[in-house]
Design goal:
Strand order of the largest sheet: 3-2-1-4-5-6
Number of helices: 5
Number of strands: 6
Order of helices and strands: EHEHEHEHEHE
Distance between the termini: 32 Å
Structural class: alpha/beta
Helix content: 25-40%
């Protein structure tokens, strides 16, 4: 849980389904929020919120990540994909494992608390799909940093909603 005093919270994947809701709640609680996203159009509804900064860029760019995460009290990783091109698992590893490693390096540099959204059934060795194996591998990367950062891994169950347009 976030402290009662306002925090600078960076949300990777903040323009996604879960991220947009979380960002709204963080702002209502009085926190400053930096939303990291690759797609400016997806983040457009967040642009009007007070206390929100949008950082548009490539997650593969360490300079972008260091700059966007500088000074953060909390870094929340919500990035996730459900499908990939091809069937090799490379897309899942890139989005879930490699990005998590980059965010962890930035969290260590910023001395920030790290929250990782994973998935029920995540297991690097025996997950039933590339998705679950990559989420499990990402969890292990987070645990590997236990001596350098304060972290929480959470595994939500089914997430669903109806979208009214």
């Amino acid at each position: 849980m976030l402290a009662a005093r306002p925090q600078l919270v960076c949300v990777a994947g903040g323009s996604g389904f879960v991220g947009r809701e979380l960002v709204n709640r963080l702002v209502r609680a009085g926190h400053s929020v930096r939303v990291l996203t690759r797609h400016e159009a997806h983040a457009a509804p967040l642009r009007v919120l007070p206390l929100v900064e949008l950082h548009i860029g490539s997650y593969g760019d360490d300079t972008f990540l260091r700059r966007a995460l500088s000074g953060a009290n909390v870094i929340i990783n919500l990035v996730g994909i459900l499908n990939e091109r091809g069937r090799s698992g490379a897309g899942f590893r890139l989005a879930h494992v490699e990005l998590t490693e980059q965010l962890l390096r930035a969290a260590v540099a910023a001395h920030a608390r790290f929250l990782q959204m994973s998935a029920l059934g995540a297991d690097a060795a025996s997950g039933a799909s590339h998705y679950l194996r990559s989420k499990g591998a990402a969890e292990q990367r987070v645990r590997d940093h236990a001596d350098r950062i304060d972290y929480t891994i959470f595994r939500p169950s089914v997430i669903f909603a109806t979208r009214i347009r």
